[in-house]
Amino acid sequence: MGTTDVVTISASILAWVSIFVVFYFTYKTHQEKLAFWKVFIIFMIGIFSFSYNFNFKSTVISIPVLPLGVWFLMLWYRTRRSLWQNYHRFAWVGFFSAFIFAFTTLLTIPVQHVIYPADEISTYIADTDHVSILQTHPSAEERVLDHTKLTIYMRQMEQHPIHSVKWYDDAVMESQRGRTTERFPYQLTGVQPKWGSGKHAIIFVEADGKGLLITTPKHQYYFRSDEPLFKEDAHT
């Protein structure tokens, strides 16, 4: 489903259904019988607005501020005030419908956290059967992933802080000693996230096989297990 999750799609559908209900109720209760296609065009123009966008918990929320569409229609009907009296309700319904989108977008934040927690490995690795490891650095030894261990340990792995500065300093020290190393020289391939989450990530495996670094477009998460995820007889 690309990068769009089921929760976001469901919220968009809910928003459009709610907007249609409000629009239809306004149309049916209007005293004057107006052509449906005309009021619908007025409604769609009324949706256009200048919005203030802000980021809340990695989700962009758009709050309409200036009713540009309504102002345009007011100018258009400035010499035909009787017509504007008939249509102005639908223009304002279009403008305020943007608040419904903002509200439903806010609702997706707690729902996503419950269904697709960003700090749990199972969100990013839904099925371990087709997962394997790929060497991404010359310092990596040839290893084979133990699918049974991955299935068991990923439920027990604890999240740890990412010490980027320390890791960088360690790499520099190793380089000064004439050894080129990489803390995460493996990458998991064949990884599929939980269905409908849209949370695709690049997952790196630590050299000792005990750590996973999950990298998403916005965040990184580091998990450690007590035992390596490699097969014990995987050396060649």
Could you describe the largest sheet, including whether it forms a barrel? 6 strands, antiparallel
Radius of gyration using CA atoms only: 27 Å
Contiguous uncertain segments of 5+ residues? none
Helix-strand makeup class: alpha+beta
> β content, as a range?
15-25%
How many β-strand runs? 8
Average per-residue pLDDT, rounded, comes to 86
- Name the strands of the widest sheet in spatial order: 3-5-6-7-8-4
Overall tally of domains: 2
Helix content: 40-55%
Overall spatial form: elongated
Summed up, the helix count is: 7
The span between the termini is 39 Å
| Element order: H for helix, E for strand | HHEEHHHEHEHEEEE
Concise structural overview:
44% of the residues lie in helices and 17% in strands. The protein is α+β, with helices and mostly antiparallel strands.
Structural write-up:
By secondary structure, this protein is α+β, with helices and mostly antiparallel strands. The chain has two domains: 6-115, no CATH class; 121-224, no CATH class. It is 44% helix and 17% strand. The protein has seven helices and eight strands. The chain has helices at 6-29, 36-47, 68-76, 81-115, 121-124, 147-153, 164-176; strands spanning 50-56, 59-66, 132-135, 158-160, 186-189, 202-205, 211-215, 220-224. Strands 3-5-6-7-8-4 form a six-stranded antiparallel β-sheet, with no helix packed on it. A two-stranded antiparallel ribbon has the order 1-2. Helix 2 crosses helix 4.
List the SSEs and their pairings.
Layout: H1 6-29, H2 36-47, E1 50-56, E2 59-66, H3 68-76, H4 81-115, H5 121-124, E3 132-135, H6 147-153, E4 158-160, H7 164-176, E5 186-189, E6 202-205, E7 211-215, E8 220-224
Antiparallel strand pairs: 1-2, 3-5, 4-8, 5-6, 6-7, 7-8
